[in-house]
Structure formats: structure tokens, C-alpha cells
Amino acid sequence: MSIVTKVSKKSQIVIPKEIRRLVHLFDGDELMVDVEGERIILRVKPRSYTKKLKGLHKEIWKGVDPKKYIKEERDSWR
Q1: pLDDT along the chain (78 residues), means of 10
Q2: What is the helix (H) or strand (E) element at residue 70, kind and residue range?
């Protein structure tokens, strides 16, 4: 989806309502700004990184007994 917006005299931009809805951006939210080549990347800053990362790569650990895994790792250090 491409929507055109203008940069104001104060270097401000308006993020169109359709885009704000898609990314769940609300008043007071913070944005992270990155530059990749000639692109400006805006990302909504997570309110909680813990909640954002919870469950990341859970498919890797499916069926793994954590206590057994830790014991095997510790035993391998000896």
C-alpha cells in the first residue's frame, strides 16, 4: 500500500489514518526511525519488549523438556 503525504515547513509528516489503523498506532505512541539507503523506516516502539518477544521461536522448543535440556548442557561443560 502506497499513500502520498507531504513534509510540512516544520519537517513534520501526517501518517494517514488507514496506515495508523493497520499498525495499531495511537496518540502518544513512540516511533523508532531508521534509515536504510534512501529509505526512512518508521516502526512502532513496543510498549513492552518482554510482551513483544514472548513466544518468539517457540516452535524450536516444542517437545523439549527444559530441565533435561539444561542438565545436559551443564553436564557437557565438565
Answers
A1: 92 94 93 96 90 87 91 93
A2: helix 66-76
Residue among 39, 44, 45, 46 at smallest CA distance from 21: 44
Compute CA distances 6 → 15, 16, 53, whole Å.
10, 11, 34
This prediction's pTM = 0.59
Count of CA atoms in the C-beta half-sphere (13 A) of 9:
0
Could you tell me if residue 36 is inside a domain? yes
What residues pair up with 36 in beta bridges, in sequence order?
39
Contact (Cβ atoms closer than 8 angstroms) between residue 27 and residue 7: no
Which residue type, as a one-letter code, is found at position 42?
A: L
Query: Does 6 reside within a domain?
Result: no
